[in-house]
Amino acid sequence: MPLEREVYKELESVVGPEHITEEPATLFSYAYQWMAELVPDVSGGGKFFDRPEAVLVPGGVEEVQAIVRLCNRYGLKFHVYSTGWGPWAAPPSGGQILLDLRRMNRILEIDEQNMFAVVEPYVVAAQLQAEAMKRGLNVHISGAGAGTSVLANACCFQGGGPDCIYFDSPQNSILSIEWVMPTGDILRTGSLGSGLGWFCAEGPGPSTQGIIRGALGGSGGWGVVTKIAIRLVHWPGPPVMPIEGTVPAYRTKLPADQFRATFPAFPSWQSFADAIYHIYDSEIGYIAHRQYVMWGDELQAAFLKIVSDPDRQLCDLEELLHMPEIQKLTDEMRRCFQLILVGMTPRDLEYQLKVLDRILEQTGGWNVALVNEPAMQQYVLLYMMRLCFKNLNFTATGGFIDTYNSVASPDIWASGEIEAGKKLLKKYAGRIADAGDQAMGPIAGQGGGGVTGWEDFLFYDPHDPDSVQAAIEVSDEGDRLKAQQGRPPGGMLLGLARTTHTEEKVRAQKLVHAREYQWQRKLKQIFDPNGIGSGNYLWAAEPSTNGEST
Amino acid sequence: MSTSNCKEALAQIVDGEHVCDNPEVIAAYASDNSFDPPKKPLAVVRPTDSSQVQALVAWAYKTKTPLVPVSSGPPHFLGDTVPAAEGAVIVDLSRMNKIIMIDRRNRVVIIEPGVTYNMVQPALAREGLRLSMPLMPRATKSVLGSVLEREPITNPRYAWSLTEPLRCLEAVLGDGSRLRTGEMAGASISTSAGQVMDYAPLEEVLEKRRKIQETVLYQYGPGQFNYYKLVSAAQGTMGIVTWASLRCEVLPEVEKFFLVPAPKIAPLIDFAYRLLRLRFHDALFIVNGARLAFMLGENRDQITRYQQELPPWVLILGVAGRGLLPRDKVSFLEKDIKDIAQHCGIDLKSNIGSVHGDHINDLVLKPSPDPYWKLRSKGGCQDIFFLSTLNRASEFISTMVSEATAHGYTASDIGMYIQPTHLGTSCHMEFNLPFHPAAEHEVQTVKELYQSASYALSGQGAFFSRPYGMWSSIAFGRNPMHTDVLRKIKALFDPHYILNPGKLCFQDTP
Question: Nearest to residue A152, comparing CAs of A57, A230, A229, A219?
Answer without folding.
Answer: A219
